[in-house]
## 1
Amino acid sequence: MNEKIPNKNEIVKIKVKVTNIGINGDGIANEMGERYFIPYSAPGDYVSISIGNARKGGRIAKINNIINRSEIRTDPACLHFGTCGGCTLQHLQTKEIANLKRGFVASALEKQGLSPSTLLPTVEIPPGLRRRVRFAVNKSKRVTFGFFEPHSNQIVDINRCPAIQPAIADLIYPLRNLIIATQAITRVATVQVTLSDTGLDILIRPGKVTDLKLEDRETFANFANQYDLARISWHGSLGAEPIAQRREPRHQFGPAAVTLPPTAFLQPSKKGENVIATAACVALQRATRIADLYAGCGALTFPFSRIAPTHAFEGDDEMVSAIKRAARKHPVTAHLRDLARRPLTAPELNDFDAVVFDPPRSGAKSQAAALAGSSVPVVIAVSCNPGTLARDLSLLIDGGYTLQSVLPIDQFPWSSHVEAVAILGR
């Protein structure tokens, strides 16, 4: 029993029992009327912790030592685990992570008054397949290149990462050296690396918008040649500008090869993308006219087009253009539309017998409300945020839809994120 109730203005060490994992991947313990969020802990752990800053719903804490180790723990695969915030769940057994993520979706459904009875087992995507990574950079004192610590803006300097594709991991040291050599980066930046079907595609965003001088441009071009990049781009005052493109970065989406703009959205792994597309296509087999909302660059649009003519709606003009260029031999049309500000109306939606929407983490509240007032027979919702997904599903169900299934997909291995595909019908 802890004898002292911690004062919120001082650091106190106490011992607690971890009971569960929260949606952000932290272990949760409750002691003396306070809730503690403890990174890298596991349900069943009995730990000594140091109490840190307040956070919504409780206080952040740090493990001093594990007194009794949970039975569901395993040895982490990465030497940076415990400091890097990129993977919060590496210390848990694989099956426990799958169950945990299914539980996240179930909890979100229940909070909206929805039954989790339609929830399927989690589809597990193995680690090491991530094809899209965003590294953080700071060179104000010494160059740090890696990922943020949990609940912090401090960057953990990494040299390997078992969560990502080896081709990306092998570029960590060269990219760090490139950052050192880039005069236009004076302090902070992000480096986005995507493994396309035709090679590595890199986009560098400086913290302070600035344009490259000739010397930096030559450095980038030499780097692209030395490491056989498909493309390297710089995000300056005019947006994302390709500095060196040795070949088009292409991705195969179903029957179509799409050349992506530097800022395009892409699912984190090809396998995860295929699981989403397959689950949706099964539910669309009887469709004759499909709408793909928040279509991105057509990752789902083109697989759907094998079933029926598909109409993509997307708010980013570069991604719409990418779909149009790839759609010449396919029954696909692409429309520029900001669905958050101007969702398709019920009369517009009624032109389709199936609608799929895959919005950003904030969800599609306005679009779901419009769908609820439509007569579309089949609706499929794809989301990486269980909370906003459940909210949108609730709107659809209130409008007369029946939730047929929800498929959790762990395409973010070792992190607390989870994808889900929900099928609804009238």
Note: The radius of gyration is 23 Å.
## 2
Amino acid sequence: MPVNNTMLEQATSDYLLWMVSNGYSPKTVESYERVLKHFLVFINRRKIAWSDIFTLDTMQNFQKSRSKATAHAVRGLSRYLFQQNRIFRPIEKKECRLPEIYEDYLAYHARIQQVQHIQIVRIRRVLFAFHDYLERFKINLVSIRIEHIDAFMAEFNKKFAPQTKKTYRTYLRGFLKYLYHERRIIRKDLAPLVVGAPLFAQSKPPTFLRLHEVQKLFDTMDLSSPTGLRTNAMLELAYNLGLRPKEICLITLDDILFSEGELIIGDRKNTNPMKLPLPESTIKAIAAYIIGARPENDHRTLFLSLKAPYGPITSAMVNHHLKIFMRKANLPSTAYWLRHTYAQNLLEAGASIYEIKEMLGHDSIESTRKYLHIHINLMRKVLFDEEL
């Protein structure tokens, strides 16, 4: 069997298992499996090289022999492999160029923010819809007002979940800042005015793990495999330091000061680098991963994929592996539950809200203030004279 066919067969199997573990419906998994089997036969018959499999041309040729409905499965597989660092980029829809000002912004944003290709694709999608809206109503960029933007967001965002709406507003705010600060095209910075509708009596406090759940989580960890060693190190960093998935995936070997027992976090959300103390258990977990699981290569990033070409993993993969492990421990939680648990522990230890803000790397004190609502231990002790 050709090497490409073997690699694609393994990749397909991994992807389908990933779908199952992430809660996709059996009907969807069965449908994707059927399509990807046909895709495997198509690639094998055409003897297409691995580097040319996940391209728009290959997928379009495959669709000619099947149907357009096959695109979802093939694109999904390509996105999964891209997140795994097994291909250089996923299959995207045929790109339509926007007017020059939009393209200039996308190039500027990619250069300044150093974001991944997939995020630029998502921003392009929002800007394309925004441009189309302005064209339909014959509104010039120079004369846009907040009323126009509100009307666009109401139309564009109506079918999306709250978190997706928030993300898309962020994308649009970035473009508006660029128009005002960098290009001086609009007279007023409209970005701060792009906000979501107020939610009354719907405040959802952060979720966190109880002491017995944390104990169960660490007791369940399997340290007999490279994946287990890597996940354990990530778990230690998320729980004992409250790091975000993005902060975990950006840690380099040079950031770890073993002799001082410290970790340098240079790329925080609030851009304020800081040193955090490393507990002994975290140091041991990192050392065990480096010695027993980390591939040997020239990359300085701490966490790497465990399959060739052994590139740095993404924040999505950090979140994915932690989430999968927590589900195996029968804890329906995510990587951010660990961060919230860290904040809860600081609060119970007597840390002030300002200290917690610095330790979590929050931009604003308002981001930290919500943690005041999860101090359940103290609340029960005061109100009911009981311990949690």
Note: The chain has three domains: 3-83, 100-193, 211-384.
## 3
Amino acid sequence: MKIEKNILSESQIELTVEVETPDLDKFLTNATTKLSEHVKVAGFRPGKVPAEMVKSQLGEAVIWEEAAKLYINKNLDKIIADNCPRQSLGMPQISITKLAPGNNLEFKAIVSMIPEVKLGEYKNLGIKREVVMVDEKEIDKVLAEFCEAQVKEAIVDRALTTGDKVTVDIKMFMDKVPLEGGQAQGTAVIIGKDYIIPGFDDKLIGAKAGETRDFELVYPADHFQKNIAGKRVEFNVVIKEVYERILPTPSDELAKNFGLKNLEDLRHNIKHSISHEKEHKAEEKAHISIINALLAKTEFGEIAEVLVDSELENMMAELAHNVEHHGGKVDDYLLSIKKSAEDLKSEWRDESLKRVKSALLLRAVSEKEKIEPSAEDIEHELGHLREHYKDDDRALEIINSTAYARRLASELANRQTILKLGEWNIIKNAKDEVACDHEHDEHCEHTK
């Protein structure tokens, strides 16, 4: 093997690797076996097709290309470790520059390296965590939501009033011209909730099924639909059905529906849940304050643009996941905000750089303090992932790869480092106690 090094910048190095044919020959058998799984030949099971038949169907060049990929996957980590002046970060850019059956393989690897990180003081920063309190009104609100979830509805033949649900057909106009997207059939409205626009519900009170109400309302100036914000809109509303809604009241019976003894236990359970959530958010906010404080004290060498670009792609993937999780499409979302993916990436570039620096900072602290997950920690996480994706062969292939295990180890090390930074820097005092009723909550962590 011959390797040439070309320093591209302080943060990147290009390695040109030439592999002699005999070294690559060893991977041809494995390449043929792997490709045979996708070759269909009558009388042979997938993966059992003879090598000559695989070569005949796919061509020798395809087999050599697969062998080259297998060689690179097996040897790249060691090549990089032996030839880079600093530890690599992220996936290198690989390009095969020479490949022909019976000839030497040549490929290039552009490797981004971890920049030099000079840590400032990262202990005893005296970060204060917000005091967590739970107001009785917050408990009442959750109780009301529980009651709402168990409401019973029945169609009634009477004029509707506050608290009823009504289904309506809506037509909206501006200066008697129909509004685009302003027509809806069978829309459910709970009178008194003001879901559509303030004043809309009041215009329907007293109507009965089959009646029509025509009226005008001015939309709030800060309404999210800019085309009608602050504008007068005409409504034509047909009442279809009126439902009486019977809400359960907070009671011992309601508590029993949740497997609890009485209303007092239910209120306490809600209080503990709110406390736990607020504590988690307060801890998260304190950790962010620690990272921000440490970033201001840390010096970074040159950071490769590829790392910032890679993080931007992660941010776009997060956006896509969130939009799709709520039933939307990314393209539609971008149209609604009148921006392109490139516009967002440009806006997010500073935040992306901050994320990269934060990751480098955590890595530097974990290395200095020798914080790393155990093999048991990693295998435990992998086990959960394998179970979750047990029916997804592609996902399992990724999860079982060495590269994924390495990435997971890095993520676990970051989590453990953040927790350690919290121990070293968050002020602990009586005010940090969560406002929960310890006497009644055997599950509260503060009673342990």
Note: DSSP finds 14 helices and eleven strands in the chain.
